[in-house]
Amino acid sequence: MVAKQSDFAFDYVTEVFDSVMVVQGDCFEWLQKVPAASIHAIVTDPPYGVKEYELDQLAKKDNGSGGIWRLPPAFDGSTRSPLPRFTALSSSEIQILKEYFTRWSQLVTRVLVPGAHVFVSSNAYLSQSVFNSIVNGGLEFRGEIIRLVRTMRGGDRPKNAEAEFPDVCTLPRGAYEPWGVFRKPIPSKMTVSECLKIYKTGGLRRRSDGTPFNDVINSTRTPNNEKKIAPHPSLKPQAFLRQIVSAALPLGEGIVLDPFMGSGSTIAAAKVLGYEGIGIERREEYFKMSVEAIPKLAGLNPQDDPIEQLNLFDS
To answer: CATH number for the domain including 36?
Structure first.
């Protein structure tokens, strides 16, 4: 029996845009209600450190006092967006993070069909903890996608001692963003071709020109026109997301889930590709943002956006 969008709405507030649906709710709660083996892929950018999206930390970001959010100085006259300082997490908070992602992995493993792929955005500092926890929850690690992009993380001089140690940086300046690639295990002795025939999963979709999907993707920072549509602090560019979402369904069939939807950029990518998609967002503010943003983001042609070339030696 083929699942319908209404099968995933339950009693939540929802909005539907053609082949995609967004749900306002907590993904941990929602995942426990979803039928087993009903989702074919996940593409998501979760709250990496969990703590940065708690209400007290968001309030500090909004009023300029920082908290876990680093407020970088203006650069060439442009105000830069706040970034989470994940090195501010204590050992006990990192342990909470590990338990959080292990539990999340257990829940998503149940709802995924065998062979389903999961793409999870992270960062160089926390990826080891996050990815190991996801494996502990039941998914198998399949590698990483490296998004080459100047993230503005790292490269800072010692806090409150910038003048004393002008030639020191506390972390390398970030030039890439790691995305963990996982898969729900294929049943024992089942081949990938058999999995494709039965579950429509097991592999990754090739690029439109027939070449393999690559694990290194050149990217820009999110263009300003997309930020204006969806002013979310962790918005990823459509030009990048559409490549990831396309690869997630090897036959172009099935349901792509983003359980940490934010402003809906992943779901917008699914919509423009004609995929079925479901996005879950806990915060009402971001859910409402997604309802407005998804049709607008899906209507963009990223090729029309100016391309910012990555320069690894740029200051």
So the answer is: 3.40.50.150
Strand partners, 287: none
pLDDT in tens, 71-86: 444 333 334 445 445 5
- Label each residue of the chain as H, E or C: CCCCHHHHCCCCEEEEECCEEEEECCHHHHHHHCCCCCEEEEEECCCCCCHHHCHHHHHHHHHCCCCCEECCCCECCECCCCEECHHHCCHHHHHHHHHHHHHHHHHHHHHEEEEEEEEEECCCCCHHHHHHHHHHCCCEEEEEEEEECCCCCCCCCCCCCCCCCCCCCCCCCCCEEEEEEEECCCCCCCCHHHHHHHHCCCCCCCCCCCCCCCCEEECCCCCHHHHHHCCCCCCCCHHHHHHHHHHHCCCCCCEEEECCCCCCHHHHHHHHHCCEEEEEECCHHHHHHHHHHHHHHHCCCHHHCCCCCCCCCCC
* 314 domain residue, yes or no: no
Residue 85: give the domain boundaries. Answer: 5-304
| Residue 154, CA distances (Å) to 41, 175, 198, 230 in order | 32, 9, 45, 25
| pTM as predicted | 0.85
- Report the percent of the chain where pLDDT is more than 90: 70
Closest CA to 247 of 219, 263, 269, 280: 269
In a domain, 315, yes or no: no
Structure confidence by residue, pLDDT tens digits, 29-50: 999 999 999 999 999 999 865 5
Place of tokens 């694990």: 215
Please check whether residue 257 lies inside any domain of the structure: yes
Based on the structure, what is the number of domains in the chain? Answer: 1
- The Cα 119–Cα 27 span in angstroms is 16
Would you say residue 89 lies in a domain? yes
